Amino acid sequence: MNNTFIYQNDGAEFLSNKNYALLADEMGLGKTVQAIRGLERIHAKRVVVVCPSVARINWLREFEMWSPGFKATVLVKLSDKIPETGAIICSFDYASENFSLITKHTWDALIVDEAHLLKSHEAKRAKAVLGVEGVGRSAKKIWLLSGTPAPNHPGELWIMLYTFGVTKLKYDDFINRYCIVRNTSYGRKVVSANAENIPELRQLLAHIMLRRLKKDVMTQLPPITYGHVSVEAGPVDVEILPSFTQYFLPVDKRDELKLELARQADLLKTVEANLKPEMNDKLQALSAISDSVSTLRRFIGLQKCRDAVELINNELENNAYQKIVIFAIHRDVIEIMRDGLRKFKPVTLYGGTDPDKRQRNIDRFQNDPRCRVFIGNIIAAGTAITLTAAHHVTFIEQDWVPGNNAQAIMRCHRIGQENPVSVRFIVLDKTLDAKIGFILKRKTEQLTQIFDC
Fold it and tell me: 113 forms bridges with which residues in the sheet?
């Protein structure tokens, strides 16, 4: 059985004692596991989890890890059957379209992950989940999870506080009391919080909210914490990627590419299947065929980009953290991540980057608050630089040499870092990439613990 920290047990206990609760821990403190442990405490038999579509698979894997005896099912289509027991996991869009179907059943608990996405009380999704006819009315308990419950202003708290009965004020009265409102040519607009009434609002939140920051629980946290996110394979537009040009110019050889990917996948499966469990050099054996499966590895990295971009965009937009360092292997992957996160002024570093530009990009990330994303090649950006402006690290791809991953992490975990560093690995669900990814995650963690690179 996996172990939890004391503060996570406290969080699970907090949830289990509340019919209505907001778990608002800072990102990286494990809100998902606290919710699952809370469900165990109330002996829940039927649960609804509503979350962003990119998080569905990860919730499924978290149930399997932390509560393996509890059956969880992802609902995607209307035809997907709702089981008699266990948890159903669905996206906000699914809940919006099918809330009347979900409310035909009684649920021990409704868990809403990234609950700040319900901040607009007039939006269809908010009404479908927390409205008078929404999913919440058929649940005995409602637990909301969000590290940023009100990303922009206190008015975004109204729907949860009103639904939970913490405030009886209607929306307009609520924002008039807790916000500064201006009349504009586009109507009334909330411009900031009303500082005078913030203490009163905090007292209201105290009835339902538990929030801890990393600095509050640092004595319980190791210097580096590790996690993973399972994602679904996204589309890859190989026709526009330079590394696949040979398959489209001067003639279309798309079928040849498919055959090559299948051949490399078979090779990788064959090698992995013949590695004995007791072998200590599994990764060394896999590294030996790295060049032979390079096209497949690049393709798998590209398949992760869609969900990774969506996930990180959501986090940055809602200020779950100020800055993030992203590592990958292939230039195509780095460029797609940069394009997808362009609004956050990303900088990149990979082999061949001009030395002067290299340092300018590092300095910009370290010193410019508008530059919130650094995306680097694991080898080129993995040594001899400092990236302590961030304490969140995400690997879209991993090097098959764990020491290289560990060195990359140490760009953030070094002198000048004031926070525990959170590291996560993006893996492609139900694939060999996930299996190898978990091995690499474990090996990388062991190296940083032993050598503190």
Answer: 145
CB atoms within 10 A of CB 355: 7
Let me know if the fold of 6-215 is the same as that of 224-451. yes
Question: How many whole angstroms separate alpha carbon 421 and alpha carbon 199?
Answer: 31
pLDDT tens, position by position, 178-196: 999 888 777 788 888 899 9
DSSP secondary structure letters along 147-173: S-S-SS-GGGGHHHHHHTTS----HHH
Average pLDDT over residues 46-52: 96
CATH homologous superfamily of 224-451 equals P-loop containing nucleotide triphosphate hydrolases (3.40.50.300)
Give the CATH fold of the 6-215 domain. Answer: Rossmann fold (3.40.50)
* Residue (of 71, 81, 77, 2) closest to 34 by Cα position: 2
Q: Cα 58–452–331 angle (5° rounding)?
A: 55
- Cβ count within 10 A of residue 7: 19
Q: State residue 276's pLDDT score.
A: 66
pLDDT tens sequence across 231-250: 999 999 888 787 888 887 77
Backbone angles phi, psi at 229, to 5 degrees: -130, 120
Exposure pattern of 148-157 as b/e (b: 16+ CB <10 Å)? bbbeebbbbb
Q: Rounded to a whole number, what is the distance in angstroms from the first to the last CA of the chain?
A: 29
Question: Would you say the pTM of this structure is higher than 0.90?
Answer: no
Joined together, the tokens standing for residue 386 give 């400092």
Q: Rounded to 5 degrees, what angle do the CA atoms 219, 220, 221 make? A: 95
Are the CB atoms for 209 and 150 separated by under 8 Å? Answer: no
All structural domains of the chain with their residue ranges? 6-215, 224-451
